[in-house]
């Protein structure tokens, strides 16, 4: 039987017949395994109404209660981790072990949310004037939503909703329609953890559901992770409606390799960060910037590793890389190989010829390596979002830094070197939000914020960390006096601090 994925509203699965649905594929076989309901604007309104009603009590619930729910949710996730990872693999295509890593990084934010009483503490100043005190509070916004991408169907939502809910908000998740089932399993875990109905809701769909959330007057804030064109649309539409917005866009992450780097370490890192999850990561390394004279030696090492990668179903223990998420996406990624060659690049490894141990109907594309890429080429300018690694050769450290800084994206970058001075200069001067030094994928731990610069972020707030807490709350400052009877009387002068 094929699966049926529907919405989760007010603590249960939505039982109305959908006007529209979309197919769910198994990327390893190409087979349709189920259907997902697409929400209408009316169904989005039902979810928002459920969240608004729940906020009346959840928003004022004691901090210990919210904390206990987060602790219990963590235990529920750990108990069902293998089930969730297998579910992600079946709809996304990534290996089960990769999916387990995604869940682990999401759990870090859940664990951060378990400490919400400390994160929500305000400030207090006694005696700012005679018998007058001033103090600050952080209070929840109300109903907030998250619109998340296909590449991390568990981790990216967990970057958002644990902190939002722990801060006292009610949350509506609109996950990708390509791999929607993980959202329902997480909803079940939250319910089993004791979260009241309506605090966490899930609506599925496409742009219609997204725009209904962006325009709904009762939605106070929007979090988004996805491509830059959609991030810009999310930001402009939601901000125009008066909402708080954090919209994380696309990336073109560069890894600079200096001549003094350990080339074996750099090659391992480039292959791991370039082809993990079939390159469908916003923090994947997509460009290796090789500072001469090491390019030939580095390309040789990378090639040796790429041709040995085992490509197959994500559920197979021996697979290192799975298929891409859809046939259309696979074909789009593959098209960059011919375009790059036509524009003058060298196709050192052609992933279309890579051996695949899997069903021929799957959405397969092996790892590909393009050398001698120029900054004016289409493959360099576009976010490919697939298993295609580019090598761009430059003559100096200064030229490498210039390449990174002139790119319109500013999500993540890395430098491989044994020179501490060069590393320090790079981290100071590079125009990118997240920097790795001999670390190829510098995704911050949960207590530091995640986010890029330039066209990789629209809005002021990064996700999780203290940025996440501040995004999902607003500050209130109270000035308090409990006067004695001798202080009574009308005073028209401007209040001072004496």
Keyphrases for this structure?
alpha/beta, globular, Aldehyde Dehydrogenase, Chain A, domain 1, Aldehyde Dehydrogenase, Chain A, domain 2, 23 strands, 498 residues, 2 domains, 7-stranded mixed sheet, 6-stranded mixed sheet
Give a written overview of the molecule:
There is one protein chain. With 498 residues, the chain is α/β, with parallel strands linked by helices. The protein folds into two domains: 3-249 and 456-478, Aldehyde Dehydrogenase, Chain A, domain 1 (3-Layer(aba) Sandwich); 253-437, 3-Layer(aba) Sandwich (Aldehyde Dehydrogenase, Chain A, domain 2). 38% of the residues lie in helices and 23% in strands. The chain has helices at residues 41-58, 63-79, 81-92, 96-113, 116-119, 155-166, 181-192, 207-215, 228-240, 263-275, 295-306, 327-342, 378-381, 397-406, 420-429, 465-471, and strands at residues 3-5, 8-9, 12-13, 20-26, 31-38, 124-129, 132-140, 143-147, 170-174, 200-202, 219-225, 244-248, 253-257, 285-291, 346-349, 368-371, 388-394, 409-410, 412-416, 434-437, 453-454, 457-458, 473-481. It has a seven-stranded mixed sheet, with helices on both faces. Strands 10-9-8-11-12-22 form a six-stranded mixed sheet, sandwiched between helices. Helix 6 (155-166) links the parallel strand 8 (143-147) and strand 9 (170-174).
């Amino acid at each position: 039987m094929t699966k049926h994925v529907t919405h989760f509203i007010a603590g249960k699965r939505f039982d109305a017949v959908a006007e529209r649905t979309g197919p769910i594929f198994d990327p390893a076989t190409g087979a349709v395994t189920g259907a997902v309901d697409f929400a209408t604007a009316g169904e989005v309104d039902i979810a928002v109404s459920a969240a608004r009603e729940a906020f009346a009590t959840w928003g004022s619930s004691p901090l210990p209660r919210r904390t206990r729910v987060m602790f219990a949710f963590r235990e529920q996730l750990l108990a069902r981790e293998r089930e969730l990872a297998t579910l992600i693999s079946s709809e996304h295509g990534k290996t089960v072990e990769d999916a387990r890593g995604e869940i682990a990084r999401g759990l870090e934010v859940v664990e951060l949310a378990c400490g919400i009483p400390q994160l929500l503490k305000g400030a207090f100043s006694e005696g700012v004037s005679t018998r007058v005190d001033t103090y600050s509070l952080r209070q929840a916004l109300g109903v907030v939503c998250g619109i998340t991408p296909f590449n991390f169907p568990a981790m990216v939502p967990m970057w958002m909703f644990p902190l939002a809910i722990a801060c006292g908000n009610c949350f509506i998740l609109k996950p990708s329609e390509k791999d929607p089932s993980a959202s329902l399993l997480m909803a079940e875990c939250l319910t089993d953890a004791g979260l009241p109905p309506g605090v966490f809701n899930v609506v599925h769909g496409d742009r219609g559901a997204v725009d209904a959330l962006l325009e709904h007057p009762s939605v106070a804030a929007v979090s988004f992770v996805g491509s830059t064109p959609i991030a810009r649309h999310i930001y402009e539409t939601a901000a125009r409606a008066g909402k708080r917005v954090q919209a994380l866009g696309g990336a073109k992450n560069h890894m600079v390799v200096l001549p003094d780097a350990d080339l074996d370490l750099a090659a391992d890192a480039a292959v791991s960060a370039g082809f993990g999850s079939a390159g469908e990561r916003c923090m994947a390394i997509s460009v290796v910037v090789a500072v001469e004279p090491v390019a030939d030696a580095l390309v040789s090492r990378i090639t040796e590793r790429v041709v040995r990668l085992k490509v197959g179903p994500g559920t197979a223990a021996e697979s290192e890389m799975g298929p891409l998420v859809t046939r259309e996406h696979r074909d789009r990624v593959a098209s960059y190989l011919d375009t790059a060659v036509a524009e003058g690049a060298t196709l050192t490894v052609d992933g279309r010829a890579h051996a695949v141990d899997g069903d021929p109907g799957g959405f397969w594309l092996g790892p590909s390596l393009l050398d001698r890429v120029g900054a004016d080429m289409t493959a360099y300018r576009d976010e490919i979002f697939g298993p295609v690694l580019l090598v761009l050769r430059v003559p100096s450290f200064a030229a490498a830094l210039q390449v990174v800084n002139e790119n319109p994206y500013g999500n993540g970058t890395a430098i491989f070197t044994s020179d501490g001075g060069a590393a320090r200069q790079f981290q100071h001067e590079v125009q990118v939000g997240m920097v790795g030094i001999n670390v190829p994928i510098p995704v911050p731990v949960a207590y530091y914020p995640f986010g890029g610069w330039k066209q990789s972020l629209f809005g002021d707030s990064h996700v999780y960390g203290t940025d996440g807490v501040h995004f999902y709350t607003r500050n209130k400052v109270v000035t308090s006096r409990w006067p004695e009877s001798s202080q009574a009387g009308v005073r028209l002068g401007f209040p001072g601090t004496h």
